[in-house]
Structures are given as structure tokens and as C-alpha cells.
Amino acid sequence: MRRGRLPLTALRAFEAAGRVESISLAAEELCVSQAAVSRQVRDLEAQMGVPLFERVHRGVRLTQAGRSLLKALTDAFDNIEGTIAEICRPMFETIAVSCDPSFATCWLAPRLSAFRQISPDTDIVLNADLRLADFGNDDTVLAIRYSKERTNWPRVEARKLCDTHLSAFLSPSLASSTDIRTPADLLSLPRLHEDSRDDWSNWFAAAGVAPPSKERGMMFNESGVMLQAAIAGQGIALTDELFAGAAVRRGELVCPFDITIPGGAYWLVSRSFGRLSLGARGFADWLMDATCGWRPACHV
């Protein structure tokens, strides 16, 4: 098929449908009707003489030919998008970063001034959000995500920033309210929980202490809020020094025992690290270097 006769509209419709494996979602992305996307895909299949989708119950599934074409189109469209963005890049660049709220509040936001010093022409738009970034449909170019076990995600590239290790942190006033000599002494104090009460049971097991038959205490969905409760003396927080370290250095929290349990990891995610703009690449490199000290071994 000659370049001058390439069905660009149909190829764009197929790329959107193939990327999400959904005609309806592709129609929403392209702001057209489902019928229009279906017609474009059918016309493309007829012109090529091969099926690109298998029609299954309530959806579509790529054929082998469809997967091959999708990869070529996605790479090509990403290259075009990246080249246009680089050509149109203003003197001052704005980088949209989607970030796990705990990481944004407790670690990243207090350190953005350090990045500003080495890259004054780059502004960061920090969006603290638990939802996965939609790189194709918004301005996000980088995302920072937490996962306990997962190490990769479809259609994106991921680089590990740091592992986390959970330790017990409490305010000096709460620590002085009772005689804390062994990990078992923490059983008498209120404990704070983030997302799950299993972590405290695992920490007590690692400390060689039989955990309570039923954990109680306040539950939080974000480390920064839980740490503020701990600083106020409302209980013991189980979190990583990555988040609690600043409060420890200010004398707002203490860590009575050098006992940790694995807590998962934080990841830097991009549609394609190789196609990032100069400013986004600089921010990604700075972030990898800045978090390197929190990892047992400093490597990408």
C-alpha cells in the first residue's frame, strides 16, 4: 500500500480500538460514534484483506495481524506526538506528574525545590491521585505508583524507585506514657492502620510476639494523614522511614525498635521513557537519583 493512499482515518480508529480492545472506548476517545469506529475498522480490514479483530461476546480481541499492526501504529503515533511536542516545546516546560498521594505528601512535595534549583525552566504539575494515569488521554507524562507485589503494567514502562520497609513510629509523648522495653509493650498502646490491619499482625510476628486475636484502631487510606495522627499522639503508625524520617529528625516521632517488615515498592511509570521530552527526562533522572539512597542497592 503506497504512502499516499494510506487510510489514515481508519488507521487512527483501529489504533485506538486495538490499544484498549474496545470499540466503545475508542469511540469515546476519538469523540465519534461506535458505528463510525466499527465502519472504519471494517473498511481497513477489507482494504488489507485480513481480519484485525475477532468479534467476541460484548467485545473484540486482536488477531495476530492486528497485534502486529497495532504495535507499528502505536510506535509511529507516539513518535509523531513526541516530535511535535519537542518542536513546539516552549522555553519554559511544564511536566504533569501523577503521583500516589502518600508519596506526594510525605516525600516528593517537600523536595521539589531541590529539582527546581537544578532545572529552573521546568515547572511540575503534581496531581496526587490514586487512580492510574491515562497517558493517552490527559497531559500526564510520568506517574509514581505504589504496589505491594506488582512489577509491571500493560502498555507502559516502569522503573523501580525504592522498596519500602515498615517500622513502628510514635510520638515522644505517647512513648513516655508507658514503659516501652520490648515489642510486646506496644500491645497496650493504640495502633494506627493504613488500608489493612494485617500489617501490624505481620510486624508483631516478625518481632516474635503473638499478635492480638483481633486488631483494632483507626484506619487511614493515606500515610501522610496517618502520620499526622501519630504526631498528635493518637497511636503508633506502621510506615516507612521514607515518610516518617523528616518527623523523626524534627523530634516529632521516635522509632523504638529496629524491626521492619516488607511493605512493597514505589515505581516510576511512563508510556515510553525513551520518548520523554528533555524536561521530563531530567525530572525522571533526578527522581531516580534522589530515591536511590532509599534502596538497599543503588541500581536502575
Describe this structure in words.
The chain has 2 domains: 85 residues, Arc Repressor Mutant, subunit A, CATH 1.10.10.10; 209 residues, D-Maltodextrin-Binding Protein, domain 2. The protein is built from 11 helices and 10 strands. A 6-stranded mixed β-sheet has the order 4-3-5-10-6-9. Strands 1-2 form a two-stranded antiparallel sheet. Strands 7-8 form a two-stranded parallel ribbon. Helix 1 crosses helix 4 and helix 2 crosses helix 3. The radius of gyration is 25 Å and the shape is elongated. The C terminus is likely disordered.
List the helices and strands and how they pair.
Layout (H helix, E strand, L loop, with lengths): L7 H13 L2 H8 L3 H15 L4 E4 L2 E4 L1 H24 L5 E7 L1 H8 L3 H7 L3 E7 L11 E8 L9 E13 L2 H4 L17 E2 L3 H9 L12 E2 L2 H9 L5 E4 H9 L11 E10 L7 H15 L8
Parallel strand pairs: 3-4, 3-5, 7-8
Antiparallel strand pairs: 1-2, 5-10, 6-9, 6-10
Helix pairs in contact: 1-2, 1-3, 1-4, 2-3
* Envelope shape: elongated
Strand order of the largest sheet: 4-3-5-10-6-9
Helix proportion: 40-55%
Main sheet: strands, sense, barrel: 6 strands, mixed
Gyration radius, rounded: 25 Å
The number of helical elements comes to 11
How far is it from the N-terminal to the C-terminal residue, by CA? 42 Å
pLDDT average, as an integer? 88
N-to-C SSE series? Answer: HHHEEHEHHEEEHEHEHEHEH
Strand content: 15-25%
Tally of distinct domains:
2
- Report the count of strand segments: 10
Low-confidence stretches: 295-300
Concise synopsis of the structure shown:
The protein is an alpha/beta fold and 300 residues long. The protein folds into two domains: 3-87, Arc Repressor Mutant, subunit A (Orthogonal Bundle); 92-300, D-Maltodextrin-Binding Protein, domain 2 (3-Layer(aba) Sandwich), CATH 3.40.190.290.
